[in-house]
Design a protein that fits this description.
Blueprint: H1 12-19, H2 25-38, E1 44-45, E2 51-53, E3 58-63, E4 74-76, E5 79-81, H3 89-97, H4 99-104, E6 107-112, H5 122-131, E7 135-139, E8 145-150, E9 152-161, E10 165-166, H6 176-188, E11 196-205, E12 211-212, E13 215-224, H7 227-247, E14 251-260, H8 268-280, E15 286-290, H9 295-298, E16 304-307, E17 312-313, E18 321-322, H10 326-340
Parallel strand pairs: 3-6, 3-7, 7-16, 8-15
Antiparallel strand pairs: 1-2, 2-6, 4-5, 5-18, 9-13, 9-14, 10-12, 11-13, 17-18
Helix pairs in contact: 1-3, 3-10, 6-7, 8-10
Length: about 350
């Protein structure tokens, strides 16, 4: 057993070795509940698949859902490789390792679903609503980064729809393909600051090489640090899409897939506690912007901040990696952070 583990803690590296190879939200949630129970806690679940223990004013959340399904780890020297080994299997392992100690300190330890992809923070939003915490901490991210400002996002799915037809026999019929091409070119040509991002992550359309597509579409992720700037981007994109549909005589369908708030609700005390906790493990905090489960607290006005707890890289790729020993540093930082955090 690692010298990290005590009567009230587990070794996060050993926990990571298990959770990092478990695929599927339900299976991961069941494993987390089993681990909490084995540590003497009483896990609770909801219909979404969230798992939590304790009922203190500080809500600590690590998301169990992943972008890519986990696979068996590849272990090389001081690195472990595998999809989702870091984001956020490592965060889950660190929070779970300290769960009894943190509950005794007045925290609720929670493991959420719906943080990644089109989840739209549904798990964290439900936890905040039903548990009514007074402050929120997302256990997520690469050391020594601390997300001190939330990037807002607006995600949508757009479809250009026409009559379709035979590539030769109906060659005069309107095609949605040039409308899509025009819209994509104009969206990517929008003047934007470096505090924004625009990404078309999925494209689809067409039935056969000799058929005019009846429908083409895409999914778009817009992000900005400023709420007004994000709103402006959304309005510009919508105008581009509607103009392309009008020009090519097509029907346009737009579906909002998710929204996350922009802004900052981390208090000075939270920021200072995070900085000091990282300093204690020999790291200098790097305050950045991003999007995590902490946004579910920030959007309702609660003090909220994410705390990173592992070192690695390659998030959201099959070759994601972590330095497993860094999880013990992250656990030390999380323990110190919570002890310094003012309890409301």
């Amino acid at each position: 057993m690692s010298d990290f583990a005590t009567e009230t803690t587990r070794d996060p590296v050993l926990l990571l070795a298990e959770i990092a190879e478990i695929s599927g939200d339900a299976a991961r949630a069941a494993w987390v509940a089993q681990q909490l129970q084995a540590q003497g806690l009483r896990p609770q679940t909801d219909e979404l698949g969230n798992v939590w223990a304790g009922h203190g004013p500080t809500l600590l959340i690590a998301h169990i859902d992943t972008v890519l399904p986990p696979t068996p780890l590849r272990r090389e020297q001081n690195r472990w490789y595998g999809p989702a080994v870091g984001d956020n299997s490592s965060g889950v392992a660190v929070l779970l390792a300290l769960a009894p100690e943190l509950v005794n300190l007045g925290c609720t330890v929670a493991f959420s679903v719906g943080e990644e992809g089109l989840g739209n923070l549904r798990g964290a939003r439900r936890l905040v609503k039903q548990l009514q915490p007074q402050q929120v901490v997302a256990v997520d991210g690469y050391l020594p980064g601390i997300v001190s400002r939330s990037a807002g996002s607006h995600r949508l799915r757009a479809r250009f729809i026409g009559p379709g037809g035979h590539a030769w026999g109906d060659r005069g019929a309107p095609s949605p393909v040039p409308a899509l091409g025009q819209a994509l070119a104009q969206m990517y040509a929008l003047e934007r600051t470096n505090h924004t991002s625009l990404n078309v992550g999925r494209l689809w359309g067409g039935e056969a090489i000799n058929a005019i597509p009846q429908e083409v579409g895409f999914e778009l992720d817009l992000r900005a640090l400023d709420a007004a700037e994000l709103a402006q981007m959304v309005a510009q994109v919508r105008e581009i899409l509607m103009e392309a549909a009008r020009k090519f005589n097509l029907r346009m369908e737009i579906e909002v897939l998710g929204e996350r708030p922009a802004g900052m609700t981390a208090t000075h005390a939270m920021l200072e506690a995070a900085r000091q906790a990282l300093m204690e493990i020999g790291l200098e905090a790097q305050f950045t912007a991003g999007s995590t489960d902490a946004s579910a607290g920030g959007e309702v006005g609660l003090p909220a901040i994410p705390l990173s707890v592992y070192q690695g890289g390659g998030a959201h790729t099959p070759e994601e990696w972590v330095e497993p020993g860094s999880l013990r540093l992250g656990a030390r930082a999380l323990r110190s952070f919570v002890r310094q955090l003012p309890q409301t």
